[in-house]
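Figure 3 (text version): structure tokens given as input.
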């Protein structure tokens, strides 16, 4: 699925494209629609960096068994486990 947002709307809100993407991913994470790993992947940043962003904004990390399993798969695929 693609989402097209007019550049005028983005600029009118004083945001840059990457900032808007971060806001959308943060919202999805807060609503528990995506995991921490998926959020980091969508932003093309490390999970540690995403956790730093969460910390800077005072957003709690929710981490359950499913996310642990997802992380294990991710780390295994990267050859880290």
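Below: residues designed for each position.
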């Amino acid at each position: 699925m693609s989402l097209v947002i007019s550049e005028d709307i983005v600029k009118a809100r004083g945001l840059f494209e990457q900032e808007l993407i971060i806001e959308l991913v943060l919202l999805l994470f807060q609503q528990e629609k995506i995991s921490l790993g998926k959020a980091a992947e969508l932003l093309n940043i490390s999970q540690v960096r995403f956790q730093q962003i969460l910390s800077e904004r005072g957003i709690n990390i929710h981490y359950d068994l499913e996310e642990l399993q997802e992380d294990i798969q991710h780390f295994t695929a990267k050859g880290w486990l």
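The CA atoms of residues 23 and 29 lie 10 Å apart.
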